[in-house]
């Protein structure tokens, strides 16, 4: 009885806080920005049948990775009576963890780097859930509904793997089949400099991001080497690299209306140069 009384007192004390304070507390429980990948996923009727019925919020947004990927010798996706492979979206890592890895060599078959559970504030109370749903939306997977997930359009970031860039835009189109207009909710993308250069700079956006019509910001990750004890030198080197790349990109955009903002960033997220949209160069 005494324990219950204490819990009630704690709850009533929290409820008396100004709503601005309560919403700040809910926001502090949100995950840091995360990375969204286009991945090769497995869908099976058995898997979906096991997931039927009322689901907890955690189940709805679970991003469990496929443990039984099986490929034929020629690299094509296997299709059989039990299920099939398809290209879909999946949360794969926090932004900070992602930037510590050499993600430039990832392919669609790779497993997520870490678990990305939904915001805990979706499950605390009606107020926390309602407030969180003002900032997070559910991406519904029409092929495998249990792979649907919640993400923040303004915070979470799309990153396309190397094999998608090398294969071409067809795989981006394939990935869009089970999401439709939901792809337009994604607002930012991260690109490794190698892929950016291979696609002739801003052409990367026109070729690979046109399917994601909501994207406004593209971050290009600069290459850098570690200089022990010479952090200032490294920053200057990155700034020079960013300036040179921006000049090249401006030249490539002569006469074109470019709708994206491009930021040239390092692995800590520092911005060394920007290319702004909205005008013909």
Automatic annotation (TrEMBL):
<dbReference type="InterPro" id="IPR045518">
    <property type="entry name" value="2EXR"/>
</dbReference>
<feature type="compositionally biased region" description="Basic and acidic residues">
    <location>
        <begin position="68"/>
        <end position="77"/>
    </location>
</feature>
<protein>
    <recommendedName>
        <fullName>2EXR domain-containing protein</fullName>
    </recommendedName>
</protein>
<feature type="domain" description="2EXR">
    <location>
        <begin position="13"/>
        <end position="158"/>
    </location>
</feature>
<feature type="region of interest" description="Disordered">
    <location>
        <begin position="43"/>
        <end position="77"/>
    </location>
</feature>
<feature type="compositionally biased region" description="Polar residues">
    <location>
        <begin position="43"/>
        <end position="53"/>
    </location>
</feature>
<dbReference type="Pfam" id="PF20150">
    <property type="entry name" value="2EXR"/>
</dbReference>
